[in-house]
Specification:
390 residues, alpha/beta, TIM Barrel, nine-stranded parallel sheet
Amino acid sequence: MAKQFEHLLSSVTIAAGSVQLKHRVVMAPMTRTRNDPLTYAPRQINALYYSQRTSEGGLLIAEATAVSASAEGYLRAPGMYTEAHIDGWKLVTGAVHAKGGFIFSQLFHAGRVSHSHLLPEDVSPVAPSAVKAEGYAHTKLGKFPFEEPRALETQEIAGIVKDFALAATRAVEEAGFDGIELHAGNGYLLQEFLAKKTNLRTDHYGGSIPNRARFVLEVVDACVAAVGAKRVAIKLQQGATFSDLVEPEDDSLAQLAYLGPQLQKRNLAYVCMSSLNYDPYYKFLGLEKPNFETDVFQYFRKHYQGTLMVNGGLSPQVADRYVEEGTADLACFAIFFIANANLVALLAAGKELNLGGWDTKIWYGPQDPADDEKYYTDWPFVDPNDPIAK
């Protein structure tokens, strides 16, 4: 059975030769909200969680991490802007490296997907334009509808670009990450600039596709200048249904046609192209059909020839086919990694996978931090060498 994953389990070198992977199965970033309740810094339990999911020569991407206090969007989601954060992340990167793995930090700014109760001095969330998101924020004071964000002034944007670059420097040079992935999906600030729905600006950051992409590419370039191109990656997610942001297919494909060559010439570690076009994930989200008729992975590959990672409800079988046909170099899995900490070994041995991670009720941290290990680090391991195990 393992032969069906022979392409997915083959070796590959990325990041200008600095990251030599023994397989192409990547753990996706997953917000699990189990960091320190006061500092939002990772702790020993978080280091254990990542260590459990580390395989020799494998790549993990850490959960979405705020680049500044004003970039936060979730309770107990981590940051990269205090000494406590750096010290906590050192526990994580040290645990991963001790087992021969590699780990990138996913950096983000929540933008409008936040609330004043989550931000310093109760300031308003910011966005390209004052377009309110439907949905709710969970804060220390309870659950509240998202607020109308404040539109960023043109002169403020450079400061956020610097926040990303500083966070990248802290992640790589201080916290020990092998690189960083910029989160330009899930309806967060980077994607908000790309999307017509959330970017109504009339300055040089709005209007045309090159203008809407300007902020994203400025962030990429600042991070490349800070830590080097081989340490920088980006996740794109046009067409995904998150945070009340669904981009129309025609504009999304036009964005990808523009971004592909722009990102390729920057020689990044990789681009992660995420989509919700794949069964069972779009059905799992309650959608009747995929957002796009076009296969976004194959479409983007035509416009980007660098290292490409694909992500979004993929089965290992489908992911292996994308690698075999040359569409993808890497495949990123989230839900399968929740309940199958040694996922790579199980795939290699042809074992059945635990589907417990598909239960959304167990994704995020419990109300009582004393229960953090539940559905986090307490999943039973299946020995892939056990002939009795299915």
